[in-house]
Design goal:
With 183 residues, this protein is α+β, with helices and mostly antiparallel strands. The protein has 6 helices and 7 strands; from the N terminus they run ααββαβαββαββα. Pfam families: Mesd (PF10185).
Length: 183
């Protein structure tokens, strides 16, 4: 009983009053040990997104901006033919921000994009929706390698600067010694 009241309170806090009517018909299968089932949670999230804008990031497999813009144009054309209004803003050569005006159809759009071979990752609400792509590992390896190379270069520069400073100090010391003996 307390779990049901807590669930109704959660729904009202989330602003899902329209779902409240559906909650009256909540079956035991929809509740799992006093918890909301994944199906019910998914329904509530869909209802909460309805009529609100939604944004997500899409990472392409290719690093070439021209290729990715062409692919993105193809995807947007297909989605617009399915009556989904979508805007795309490239933020990197291989990464774009997709924006839709009505989040009601977000799941359909994401399913379509996940099925495309040229997409490495989709990120929604800081959650990666696809399996890790080999590109992610390559990028991580490249970043790690670049960091290692940068640290090694900095260390070589520090050593060279210490040698130069040592040589200057030695030269200055010799000059002082010669100057004293000549007097």
């Amino acid at each position: 009983m307390a779990a049901g009241a807590a669930l109704l309170m959660l729904i009202s806090l989330m602003g899902l009053g329209s779902v409240h009517a559906q909650m009256e018909g909540l079956t035991p299968e929809m509740m799992q040990g006093g918890q909301i089932s994944p199906e019910m949670l998914n329904m509530m999230q869909k209802k909460n997104r309805e009529g609100k804008p939604a944004m997500f990031f899409l990472t392409f497999v290719a690093d070439d901006r021209e290729t990715n813009e062409r692919l993105s144009g193809d995807y947007v054309t297909a989605l617009r033919q399915a009556h989904h209004e979508i805007q795309v803003y490239f933020i990197e050569d291989d990464k774009a921000l997709y924006s839709i005006q009505d989040g009601k159809h977000l799941d359909e759009i994401l399913d379509y994009l996940k099925a495309q071979d040229n997409i490495a990752q989709i990120e929604l609400d800081s959650q990666k929706l696809m399996k890790p792509h080999p590109k992610d590992e390559v990028s991580k390896t490249k970043v790690d390698q670049a960091d290692s190379e940068r640290r090694a270069k900095e260390e070589r520069l520090r050593k060279a600067q210490r040698r130069i400073n040592k040589a200057k100090a030695k030269k200055a010391k010799k000059g002082q010694v010669k100057g004293k003996t000549e007097l």
